[in-house]
Amino acid sequence: MVTGAGMVMGAGVVMGDGMVTGAGMVTGAGMVMGAGMVMRAGMVMEAGVVMGAGMVMGAGMVMEAGVVMGAGMVMGAGMVTGAGMVTGARMVMGTDVVMGADMVMGVGVVTGDGVVVGAGMMIGADTVMGAGMVMGAGMVMGAGAVMGAGMVT
């Protein structure tokens, strides 16, 4: 694992009960969320979706079974994107989860079966994982997904 801007998380790193992060996933400034990335059971972030300043959420992008990203949409249990969501700097992607410049993804992230990662964990330039974000068991965050090659924060 390389820490700092463009930090690589994984190549098949398992982070809980069946949860896989990585498979070439790169985090850092300029992040791209896509390439068939699965964020929850049945939840797909869609290939080529760019999240950043003036971000594109994708045509018909699905982030949970039958749920389409838009204003006020829900991205899974208790996670809301859209309502109060800022695209680019300080983008809110869920419960106390901020993505953007000085990106924060929870303090004490629970991944899988009670496994906690984060607690102030730095992942790339000004990126912190933590703040009570729960990522369920069996959830895949990668499988070729690139999280660091184009996003302007």
From TrEMBL:
Residues annotated as transmembrane: 6-32, 44-63, 69-92, 104-125, 131-152
Q: Which residues form the signal peptide?
A: none
Its keywords, alphabetically, are: Membrane, Transmembrane, Transmembrane helix
InterPro entries in the cross-refs: Trimer_LpxA-like_sf
- Specify the domain of life of the species encoding this protein: Eukaryota
Q: Which SUPFAM superfamilies match?
A: Trimeric LpxA-like enzymes (SSF51161)
Entry protein name: Uncharacterized protein
